[in-house]
Amino acid sequence: MKQWMKNVREVEPYVPGEQPQVRDVTKLNTNENPYPPAPGVLAAISAVDEDRLRRYPDPDCRGLIRALADYYHVGEDQVFVGVGSDDVLATAFMTFFNGNDPILFPDISYAFYEVWAEMMRIPFRKILLGEDFRLKAEDYVQPNGGIVFPNPNAPTSILEPVSFVEKIAAANPGSVVIADEAYIDFGGESALPLIQKYDNLLVTQTFSKSRALAGMRIGFAIGDPALISAMMAVRNSYNSYTMNQTALDAGIAAIEDDEYFRGRLADIMDTRADAVKRLGALGFSGPDPMANFLFVQHESVPAVKIFEALRARHIYVRYFAKPRIDNYLRITIGTPAQMERLYTALEEILKENR
Amino acid sequence: MKQWMKNVREVEPYVPGEQPQVRDVTKLNTNENPYPPAPGVLAAISAVDEDRLRRYPDPDCRGLIRALADYYHVGEDQVFVGVGSDDVLATAFMTFFNGNDPILFPDISYAFYEVWAEMMRIPFRKILLGEDFRLKAEDYVQPNGGIVFPNPNAPTSILEPVSFVEKIAAANPGSVVIADEAYIDFGGESALPLIQKYDNLLVTQTFSKSRALAGMRIGFAIGDPALISAMMAVRNSYNSYTMNQTALDAGIAAIEDDEYFRGRLADIMDTRADAVKRLGALGFSGPDPMANFLFVQHESVPAVKIFEALRARHIYVRYFAKPRIDNYLRITIGTPAQMERLYTALEEILKENR
Fold it and tell me: What is the CB neighbour count within 10 angstroms for residue A41?
């Protein structure tokens, strides 16, 4: 061991979904949008001029924040933007979760919550989901230093109603409650209107899924101005300039084209409805999907076997070797053509494993 | 006070240099490069395609890391990239500075070191610079949990020789020593070759100054593979995808055009040599500048007075209301035309204050 290692922070990093570097892959493993971003986005990126490259970007991200505030009918002082919702959530953890009571989050959930808590040395307690994978509001009424959950949840794709979020926010005025709505645009009802009533509720969303901009790294949080300014202070103590010029411009362009946005969401939800039927006919079942992915198990063939057989055919889905969910596959909704490739492959694989 | 505020992290954020939103400003306050980035950069950004926007970027940033490794003749496992050198340095602080002994840095230095230490609750000790603003290697031989210093130092612009960095790295095998070389390309000799000999030495640099890409947020660190992998683990526990597609592409294009890079550096160093003479003739003096800025005081007129008079003329320089340096101005080297505007304004201001 090198001498300086004694002071190194020991962490168990998050392992993101595989980003295969080979071509001709059907990539249904990281919940990316199968459609391109709004046409204005490419134009906005290409329009960046040299002067704005050599200068620091606006640290206050005013243009993008204004666009989001207008779109969601909130004040500019109620919006925070960051480098994907991971950056936004990590900043929120660092800002709000400094108490001695454990923070609470579901045991089956976005894996990064535990990674952040471990890294920032935040005490935490994982709340077991029921057998049906549903979150129960009453579980979140106990002493805590903060609460965070995805809605819809990942990787289950189950949506809880806005009343669920409200119960938790109302029951915990002394804690910041984070509703991580990364997948809310795919048919869910956002808890955003509640932020006007509950000054402890922070809603986070991302441009990576519904707005097809995973490559640009844009996420945001909306909440009470006091929540936002506390996050800004922490961000400005870490890195004042996180959003580069092209990300700021791309974000604005994506927000501006609402017709395109709604059109592609509808396409994905149509494909999802079809996928439920097609996979059902093949013997798959799972919770009612309210995100841009399905969470399914097969009636007879183990998930890991299907996962590997798909991978051998260059079709990537996500498999989690974790208790309770190790017989499920998380399958991102692709284009209809990609899904056909999936169905065909699954038919073959199931035949081989009959 | 809102109830949830009890667990909020209290911080004193860094205040970056003003980014005036008005036009026709002569902006010599944030050490940006007055020249555009290499022509290939704009082309690379415009060439980003929709598929790469909708997909997550390569979390390992392989293309950019390969370009940097080739350029600096190091292994790919010796390079870390981040969202500006602030992100790189903050990640290094979080990774390496977890001991009980205080970390050491100069009292007059990059203001963010103290901000990061405060926010991450890292004990620190500020080492007083001598009257001549020089760093003394012997001051950094005492029990410590890590060491960081800029070289050249900011805002003094003073360069210490590579032998200075080596003395500190050699004397502290149990600590990570960070040489923050944000301004090294403007005539300084980098400590980079030392990383092969000292596994505790991390050298950080940025694309924001010498490569004219402040708007794209690209910084990097080079050091022993064990240092780099420890930083990667922390980064992957915070945000796996920090560098967006356009930043990755812009960075590669900037590295590839070395002739352009060297040409603009020479231009800036020429303008700097001229500025020393011109400002000297006006009664200004300061340390021998080895960065893309000057650190000067006037023989009779207080710095704050000059700062405000310049600002009234829409010429922005940087003034720090801090002990020992509150009679100095930090002036970024602009184009020759911008500098002429500065000299003319200074002549007027000095005349008015005679």
Answer: 30
Parts of chain B with a pLDDT under 50: none
- H or E, element range at A116: helix A112-119
Of B9, B87, B216, nearest to A98 by CB-CB distance is B9
Alpha carbon distance A237, A233 (integer Å) = 6
Pick the CATH number of A20-36+259-352 from 3.40.50.620, 3.90.1150.10, 2.130.10.10, 3.40.50.300: 3.90.1150.10
Model-level pTM?
0.95
Of all residues in chain A, the one with the smallest CA distance to B250 is A53
Q: Which of A6-10, A37-41, A92-96, B77-81 shows the lowest per-residue confidence on average (mean pLDDT)?
A: A6-10
What is the residue-averaged pLDDT of chain B?
95
The CATH architecture to which B39-257 belongs is 3-Layer(aba) Sandwich (3.40)
* Domain spans of chain B, in order of start: 3-36+259-352, 39-257
Chain A interface disruption, residue of B246, B257, B332, most A CBs within 10 A: B246
The reply to whether residue A214 touches residue B50, judged by beta carbons under 8 angstroms, is no
* Residue A6 pLDDT exceeds 90: no
- CATH code for B3-36+259-352? 3.90.1150.10
> B214 and A56 in contact by Cβ < 8 A?
yes
**A149 beta partners:** A179
Q: Is the pLDDT of residue A252 over 90?
A: yes
**What Cα–Cα distance (Å) separates residue B338 from each residue in B26, B306, B332, B351?**
6, 17, 10, 20
| Banded pLDDT at A101 (limits 50, 70, 90) | very high
Residue of B nearest to A235 (CA): B13
pLDDT of residue A338: 97
Residues of B in contact with A195 (CB under 8 A): none
Distance CA B333, CA A120 (A): 40
State the CATH architecture for A39-256: 3-Layer(aba) Sandwich (3.40)
Which chain A residue shows the shortest CA-CA distance from B42?
A50
